[in-house]
Structure formats: structure tokens, C-alpha cells
Amino acid sequence: MNSTDSLIDQLAQDGAAPRPASLPRFVAPLALAMAICAIGIALVLEAPFIGMAINGPGPMLVKWGFSIALLLLSGFALWFIGRPGKATGATMATLAVPFILLAALLGADLAIGQRAFPGETWQRCLAAMAVMSPIAFGGAILAARWLAPTNLHRAGLVAGMFGGAAAMTAYSPHCPEHGMAYVAVFYCLPILTMAALGWLLGPRLLRW
Amino acid sequence: MGKQTDFSGDTLDQLMASARAGDSAAYRRFLSEAAQRIRAMLARKIGADSELEDVVQECLIAIHAKRHTLDPGRPVAPWMYAIANYKLIDHWRRRGRSPIEFDDAADMAVAADTLASTDIETLLEKLPRAQADAIRMTHIEGLSNREAGERIGVGVSAMKLRVHRGMAQLKKIAEKDRI
């Protein structure tokens, strides 16, 4: 018996039944990362949703609509990319949808009129994004490592996008700023930066 | 049972379905069949490299460890070959960074310095066939690594590796015989 046959015998002893709780094992690190971001922001900052009292629900709905859509899409994409043998081009393309919609809103907003930019809290916003995005990115990396991504750049990029979207979802209730230009510069750019970092780090962090 | 038992007729699909139903013998047969197919696929890409079996084993371990990423009812083959391709690329990446360096000049000099008075065919018979053939083509027939690789359908790197390892092995054999 050669060494490959011996290996097959060893592996066969474990059986082929899928490991239990595959989906919860994937979702748990993502949920934990989200919870850390939300709790961390809530501990440091006060008065969530204060912007709604000033500007109405519109800006908050746009921010959460964008970030939660991106959060769900990137989580789904990560799950999909982690399953070898599936074409992932269309999945990746869907990640552009929230950005396209936001770009349309930005165009409309700019056409309507000027708004104060960058506002008064942009530094706090950037700090929150810079601190929380890597935490959520770490959760997404842990989740992806449970799966079997074969395109590590792509999986890293999606994990980075998840990290940025999670940070935005956690912080935006505390953000009194409004205007699509603000969202584009102080949310979208950090998210895309985190995605680019994920693309670079993916092959190192996700190798299996 | 419905859609989950709608198999494509591929042996791998049937064996995996039986294995997941608790048939451990079917899982062993699945792994054996997977090993055969992966070995054939890898041989087309890297030839009968001495590391081929190592890569096959890495693929089997990965398939086993990541079997939860195969959705029930989904064809096994695309999933399995995707993993095998990933492991092959990973193997190439690691080998690219390995301390092995091809030194064609040194390899060419060995026959003159060390093996001049030796029956080369007798020595070559002591090597794995792939390495012996590689040395025959490049050092006896005078083909380049590229020409030799094209003749038997392997890449230049794989041919270089075979020649390098074969020559290193020949050195050891010749030195041992002299002692």
C-alpha cells in the first residue's frame, strides 16, 4: 500500500457527512464583528439618531440603506466565493449596485444645490471608520477561512468591503452630517480603501 | 428526496451522496476515484513530476477538510477540480520560493567531471524513469529543456526540475560508487 492509499484510509475513517452547523460557523464571526463595532461605538459616542431630529429620517435611511445593503451583499458574496467551482463574476458585479445607486443620489444632490462640506464631524467619522473597519474585516476573514475561497484577492476584497460596511452601519446613527457628497467621501472612500487593503492582504490571510 | 438526489450520473456524485448518507466504504471509494482523476489532471499539467503524488495528497486533504463547502446535490467534479487547481497553484507558488535553484551550467558539467568513466546507462537505470528520460533527452540527445518538455508534454520548469533532481541524484550515486 502506498502513502496515498494510507492517507485515503485515514481520511475515510472520518466519513463524509458535512460538518454540522456550517452556516452558523460562517455567520458567527460576522455577527460578532458587527456586535463589537456597534457596542464599541455606543460606548464611546452618545446620542444616536440625533441627526434625524435635525434633518429628518431621509439621510439616515440613505446611509443605512447603503451600508446594510452592502453588508448583506458582501456577506452573501463571501459565502458564495468560499465555495469552490462556482462562477463569481455576477456576484462581484452585484456589489457595485449600492455604489451605483449612491452615485445617482449624489448626482441629484449636487444638481439640487450646495451643502456645507465637509461638515463638523468628519474627523470623528474617519476615525470611527479607521478603527472599526479592520475589526469587522477581521471577522470577515475568520468567516472566509472556514470556507474554501480559491480566488484569495477577490475574497479579501469582499471581506474588506464587509468591514467597511459594518463600520458604517455601526457609526452612521451617530453621524449628524447629511448630503451625498459627505457620504461619498467619508464613507464610500474608506470602504473602498478597506476593500483595496483586503484585496492586497487576501492571499496572505486566507491561504488554506 | 427530490432535487438533492438528481445526480448527473457521475460516479463521484453517486459515491459522495452515499458517503454523506453514512456509507464509509463509499467515501473511501470516492477518495480513491478523486485521487485518480486529480492525478490524471495534474499529470497533464506538470507531467510525471516526482512531486505529483505530494500534490495529489494535498488535494485529498483539502477536499476532505473543506467537504462542508460542497452543497448537497451539487456536482462534485467542478468543486473538486477547483480545489485541485488551487492546490496546484499553491504548490507552484511554494516551489517558486523554494531553495531549489536551477543551475544549468553546473548540471551540464557533472557528466564530464564525475561520470566520464562510468556507464551512464547503468546509472540512469537507478533513477526514476521521468528523471532518467529527462537526462537522456537533454544531456545525451542534446535537446534544450524546452524541446524536451515539448516532446513529452510538460513545461520547461518541470523539465528543468527533473533534470536538476536527476543530476543531483546521479552525483550522489557516482560519489557513493567511487567511495
From TrEMBL, chain A:
It comes from the Bacteria. Keywords: Membrane, Transmembrane, Transmembrane helix. The keyword Transmembrane applies. The chain crosses the membrane at residues 26-49, 61-81, 93-113, 125-148, 154-172, 179-201. It holds the Pfam family NrsF. InterPro entries: NrsF. This is DUF1109 family protein. It comes from Aurantiacibacter rhizosphaerae.
From TrEMBL, chain B:
SUPFAM superfamilies: Sigma2 domain of RNA polymerase sigma factors, Sigma3 and sigma4 domains of RNA polymerase sigma factors. Transmembrane segments: none annotated. One of its GO terms (biological process) is DNA-templated transcription initiation. Keywords: DNA-binding, Sigma factor, Transcription, Transcription regulation. Residues 36-97 form the RNA polymerase sigma-70 region domain. Residues 119-170 form the RNA polymerase sigma factor 70 region 4 type domain. GO terms for molecular function: DNA binding; sigma factor activity. InterPro entries: RNA_pol_sigma-70-like (IPR039425), RNA_pol_sigma-70_dom (IPR014284), RNA_pol_sigma70_r2 (IPR007627), RNA_pol_sigma70_r4_t2 (IPR013249), RNA_pol_sigma_r2 (IPR013325), RNA_pol_sigma_r3/r4-like (IPR013324), WH-like_DNA-bd_sf (IPR036388). NCBIfam families: sigma70-ECF. Belongs to the sigma-70 factor family. ECF subfamily. This is Sigma-70 family RNA polymerase sigma factor. It comes from Aurantiacibacter rhizosphaerae.
